[in-house]
User: Fold this.
Amino acid sequence: MVCRPVLREVALPSFGSPLLSTLLALAATFLALSIVVQIVQEFYKYITKSKSRAYENALMDFLGPWASQLFRPGVLFNLQARGPFQFKRLSPRGALLPMDRDDLMRALERTCSPWVKRATDAIQMECQLQQDGSVGASTNWKRFLGELGKVEKAEAGYWDAHEVAILLADWGHDWKKSAAADESGRIGDLIVADGGNETRNGGFDASELRVAFRRRFMPHIDKAAADFPQFERNSSYAYQRRNLRQTFILAFLLALAFDLPFDKLYAKASVVTPETAVAMAEQATIGAFGLDYLVNWSDVSQIWNDGLFAVLRHLFSCLVTALLLSFGAPFWNDLTSSLLQFQRSRKSGAS
Amino acid sequence: MPRLIFPKAAKNRGPGFWMRGGNLLAARRKFLRPDHSTEWRDSFPSPVGRTSRTVAFSELQAPNRPNTGSFRFLILGDTGEGDHSQYGFLPLIRALKADFMMIAGDVAYPAGRTSDNPELDDYLCGFFQPYRNLNCSIWAVPGNHEYYSERNGLEFFQIFCTESFTSQWHQHGLRFVCQPGTYWELSDPEEQTGLVVIGLDTGQCANLDGDKSWWQFWKSRPKRDDHQHAWLRERLDRADEHGQKVIVMFHIPGLVRCEHDKSTHMGELHHILASHPCVRLVVTGHEHNFQEYDAGQFGKYLAEVHGAKPFPGVSPRYLVAGGSGAYLTATDFKQDKFHCLPYPTPSQWADYASVGRRFIVQIGLDKTPIARAAALFEKNVLTDADAANYLSLIMVDVAGPVTTVTPVFMDDLETLYPGEMDVDVQAGVPPITGHFVSKCVQSHRSFEL
Assistant:
């Protein structure tokens, strides 16, 4: 004997069903409110440079306090956009927008000390020249080495120059300490080969030197470059989270300010006629409902008279409204459209 | 009277600076934020290029300096927030001509912050700018104020233990030698001197034991710092084996104001110190004055408070040395259970502090904003924002196997520059003459390790 499942007929809401009308009116209301929240939020984001701030925070989390050097006035002047009210570029500050990997690494290199930056540029040029077939040290390189040797101890960049000189000495670029150099506290005079044209190690491999140089002076930048894909993911996640937080807070404030707790919205939606519900869904704007439909200021003062429990219940209900509004306008638009379509299909089926 | 010229940076960082709302809050984060220093410390990445926490003294000395086994270094504690008292100590620091310096915590008041706004950058105002052009390397251990930062001490770690801030060091004329972590060891691999200096990290609240009071039911239990304890034990075992003498330096003291500070939880640390005869000197900071406890007093403290059994006759000396630039705190405390030699002496303190300030100290509100507010009305403070009086540091001279420790006290900057003259305090111009320097160097109180 075969047991057949008994299919119980489920009573689907039909055209004219109070539940469907209620849902439709509620979805239309939330769609309209979501659009308001989104407009306010976009304005807030623009005014507060939200994207730039989210990016800066993500950079601080990624790099640590070191990243604060990037935001010092003047460091990234040409990479920063103007703020919302910065009609003239009087202040050196600006908004830093997300950068790709190479741009960010170049920006980080700007936080290095002047002699490290100069050495990086000089080595980079040597690399290019060697790739183009040049043999031996270029004039630019020799000039750089000569200037490096002339840095005196009293100068601000001495310790930088000194550290760079120590590394370059390991690569065959030696400085000798003459009496004059000793007296002035200079790093020294560059040792030149016979003939005075070449450094002692004129045939050095610039690309190898570049690797060694970066490992010595920029290990933190190379590490940041290696971790960049994760930073992008983190940064994107942080921005989404910030947006969601803003939406929720604005929605909650809206619900509080205009007395829009969920229970009240539901109660209003439940008494809407099917025709009105369809009309609300078709023109989901506050203007279409009339503000009177949503807001009744006299109720607000009543809540405070009803005691603590009523206030807590009101706050909780506003939180529910905020939570539902956090789903965003696209969600409520899809839901409203689906319900409207369903309503129409039921209507045409019935006729 | 000399006319003292302070740099512009020293302005607005006197007692009034501490009364600002943001600074008040930031400097009291220990009440607002549970102490998870061990976890924070463990989360710091390994310093690049260092495989060990041990570095040779020679790395800190000037390059190309012949390694003769003789050098001098200074130990400062609680160096100040970039106010006049911190700058006022600079002529003497320069005159002592040290090869390198160490700071026993609280480098960046009030909260170890870095910022893109220079006035809010505590390291810039309290460290880089005051010590500009000293042309030496400086190592430090973090104090509680470094852990009050937004990123829980990561700022200190990045500045002292990574290459990220090298340009800042070099732009300010300081030699940068990367520290191998927030706790470290300096030693002499050639064993010419037999000296070892160990710097420890006591975190935000000196809770290395991971204790929690029974009534703090809302707090999660902090993690015990087993890594640091094990590392310290291993390094001291090694020093014992090699017959070396060790100076241990950390920020928050257990023994202070001649009593045990019950808010500290460092029992394991003190047991380790007691069980290693190689430890000859313990230097701490945190309290803004100088207190010297002889070996007998510290041995008694180890035995009575921590139940440790130090080797007979070889207990280390113990110094609280946090008077290197931060505002002064009282030294007229009761000396019941333990005894020390304080600086400034109680009579000097009575002369220095106003009646109101002394009353505040008596009711236990020293080191609070109330004390700072009272300081605004003190005579020296009114004339000089925060005068450089009764400052102290420790000078360590190493000459082969002989290591001499000397306290250095500066009663008053004016006495070092007698007569009418303009004194640029930051540049140390004109330099203090040897006669006046020797007035500050307390040779009669120096001792050999």
In short: The two ends of chain B are 39 Å apart (CA to CA). Chain B has a mean pLDDT of 88. Chain B touches chain A through 30 residues (CB under 8 Å).
